[in-house]
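Appendix C reproduces, verbatim, an entry submitted by the partner laboratory led by Prof. M.T., so that reviewers can inspect both the input and the predicted structure.
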Amino acid sequence: MAVCVRWRRFSRLRDLCLGAAAVVMAGAWTTTPAAAQQSGPVLPPSVSLSAGLALQVGGLFGASESSTDRIPVVQNELVPDLAPASFDEPPVPSQVDLLAQLKQYAPPPGQWAQVPNTEFDRFRLSDAVAQSLGILGSAGSRAVLTNLTGAAFDPEAHAWYFWGGGDLSYGGNEVYRLDLESGALTQITDPSVLDRTIQGNGGVDCQVPSDGPSASSTYDGIVWSPETQTFFVFPTSRFCPNTTASAESVWEFDPTLQSWSAVASLGDISGPVFTAYDPNSKTILVVTTGTPARIRRFDPVSGNFSPPSDLGQGLNSSGTMVLPAGSNDMLLVSQEGVFAVSTTNLGTMTRLADVPPEVNAHAGVAYHPDSGLLVAWNGDKTVYSFDPDTATWTTHDATTGPTTPNQHVFSKWIYIDEAGVFAGYQNPDEGLWLYRLPTSAGGTTPTNDAPIADAGSNKTVSVGTQVTLNGTASADPDGDSLSYAWEILTRPSGSTAGLNGAAASQASLTPDVAGTYTVRLTVSDGTLSDSDTMTVTAVNNPPVANAGSDRTVTVGQSVTLNGGGSFDSNGDPLTYQWTLISQPAGSTAGLTNATSKTPTLMLDVAGAFVIQLIVHDGVQASAADTVRIT
């Protein structure tokens, strides 16, 4: 029999079945042997899927999450180790404090820090699986970083989108999303199957996907548009050489719909491009290489290009372009130099300085707003800052940092203003790196902010009822772990109640006396602390009197009344008060032991005797209850 597991992936149900003869990935659920499965890609029994089908790895800030959709194979036995995850809903930006989340990994000035659980290699398919699915090669997740391609960053949601394009050994073009707030690294689209054949020059056929772009490189040609909440790819380097295929389109990716659309023709645009979003005109500025280089605007809403403007000088190598916030001049870095490109007077480009030979054509470049510096990174532990005011470069070496640079960085290098750090990707098996500029270059020294204690809301309970004290809303602005200390400041006279779990985020208290208990919570991040108080008001519930059931007896008999059914919900001891409130004419009967639980009454004449019981718990009296003896 085949062993099958169903899971949801990108709004579609998927099944993976492993049997003695084959592994089948199909579109329908079945428990029949693999040989009887509906047709689909088949793998030999020696195939190891291992972590190749891991769709989402654990967050930046902890171990694998419970929503991880991972199906490991161990010795050809399929073992679903976690519950299926649903990808039906689009990513929703969280309200987590970005600074607080990143601080625990942020390095000191002039140094690097590596963020765990962010390696793209976790998504890599085996060669056999890729072949069975019709994907040319298995390096999809690696191509995101090893190809000459950038990334698109949504600064509002702090979401970073990566797309690997393709090369001659890889035809997939899945999209990945790194949420810097929640820490989730997610593959949000499937690899595109090579399902279309196109003919290149010289009669050479190429297999390309029909549902998305395919390019060997995008260079700096990938950019986020806040107007459309999508990112655009200008894939000018063709996946299929010497053709005029689908790579001549501008492609738009919608993270909500998780789909690609070809929105415009690239026309005569070819070779490496430089792109940057201009918030003033709400357009994407595209600089194309050549002699001379040209610039044009692309409207992300209409999908139209403006006529090109010559920049007056040539650009023949790739690089990266950024637009500093509040500036009208983009800063473009290529092997030809550093240039200021006007966004208001298209066609004006001013050369500012040479580029050191150590800064290669594929370096990432990001702007540091505090210092006004342009910071370039090749992918190793050294960064280079450029001061536009003095047109000078400075080298910043770190004692530790990335040691196996890929050197294809481009826009996979950004500055996160809220956290005061640069973030960069450069190698698929190392994950995300964070860097802080030295203080001499305008970098800031991390400060420790005091935590904020929250003891929860005031509570009112009955005496004897356990109440939970909840301090989990306490927080530390820097993301530091907290210690907790609860204590009772004031209590009613006579109370001996204590706290359970006084050193935990949640404690408990059982009031033993009616009144107000004032409780204080103190939280500490190891250096600074903060306190908050709340009150627990314990109220006394009145007791309930129960005089027993009505009865009929013979004249001359002695009747024992029983108030044993009376109770106090707080567990307080009760006192009893019985009263004969009516009796037949001529009767002189009276109650014996009227303050006990079980008094007696001698019936001396025929008729109805009505007796009332009131109980008292020492604080409150009960409502009266009566019994009728006839």
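The longest helix spans residues 140-146. Additional entries are available on request from the coordinating office.
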